Each structure stands twice: as structure tokens, then as C-alpha cells.
Amino acid sequence: MLAYALSDIGKVRETNEDSFVCQPPLFVVADGMGGHVAGEVASRVAADTVSARFAGAGGEEPTALLSEAIIDANDKVYRLAQEDSERAGMGTTLTAAFVAGSVLYWGHVGDSRLYLLRGGVLSQVSEDHSLVGELVRNGSITADEALIHPHRNILTRAVGTGDRVKVDTGSLTLAAGDKVLLCTDGLTNMVTDGEIAAALSRDGDGAALLAQLVARANDAGGLDNITAILVCFEAV
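^ that's the sequence the OP posted. Answer follows.
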């Protein structure tokens, strides 16, 4: 298993409010919101909370541990927001994956994404907790229309914006040659799934593939921070 991570401020934002953890077998991406005095705090606290929970784990079942860790992150971010008026309403997306043997376990809140590339076919594993995500799922708009929808940035679920959070969890069995991508919407709002699949299907160093994806997002406008983790399973 080889893992690569890259985070870029983009071309418009003054600060990078994304955070990530790339410490195999744990991987986390978080996209903070609430402005530079809050968003970067929310994402960093959430990512660090998940990382710390796994560092101190003692053989707990991974799915339950992911859910508990993200709920802990929600509690911490929400409490910080209540204690400081400048951080009121802050929150973050959070997508995490943990690999044990041949199984990848994942937990997710928000509209950052977890993808699986297998045999050249890209599948979105996570579900977007956003207004446009719901509209796409119920057939009201297409995925292409979602990319330009005026309310595409409205989340229906996030970490830290309320005293409770519902966490999506799941698992998948990995095969040799699989590639897993965790990324914030700074990438997916600028680069299509088809472009992601094409880029990740190329041969080459994983770090170079990530750099190409981030460059493509910036070439398309770089309207948001861009963070991505690529995990390559050459043998499981």
C-alpha cells in the first residue's frame, strides 16, 4: 500500500481551510467552513480528533471506531463554536478511511468524497450531504447541472454545526491494483469524474498523478482549496 497527499490553497482563497491526515492505515480529509478564523480550526480539530482516537485504539471494530471518532470530532468543534462568537456556525466536512488487511472501512459527513478506481472504472463510494446531492439523487437535476447550480455549496450535514451528527459508514474489500481517492470539493467542483478516472488510470508515480489533478483544478479556476489523498493497493 502506497499513499500520497497534496493540499493546495487554490487561486482564489486567502487561506487554506482544508486539513488532512495521511498516516497509513488511516486517511482523513476535512474541508472547513466559517471563514479563516473558524474553518481552518474546525477542519484541523476534526482531523486531529479522528487521528488521536485511532492512535489510542485498542482493537475496537473499525466501523464503530470511525463513527465514534467523528461524533467526538463533532462534539469538540461544536463546543468550540459555542465558546467563541467569532467561530459561531463553524463546521467541516470529514471523510475518513481505515485499512485493515484487505478491507477498507470508511466514515463520512459532508460533501468531500471517497472514490474507488478499479479496472479503470471510477465509483463514488460516499454520498454527498448537500442540497444538490439530494437533487441529483431524486432526479431533479443531473450531475452536470449540479456543478453549476447556484446552491451547490449548501451542505445538509456537517461536523460541528449542531450538537449531534449522523455519520455514514461502510466498508469494501480491496483488490490488487485498486486506487482509493479521498478529496475535498475544491477538486470535484473543478474536475469531472471522467477526468479524475482518466488521470488516475495513467501509469506513474502517485504523487505526480495527484499533482496533475490539482493543477487541472487550478487551471479550471481554482475557486476553492484543493486537498486529495491517493492510496494505491498494489497487493492486498
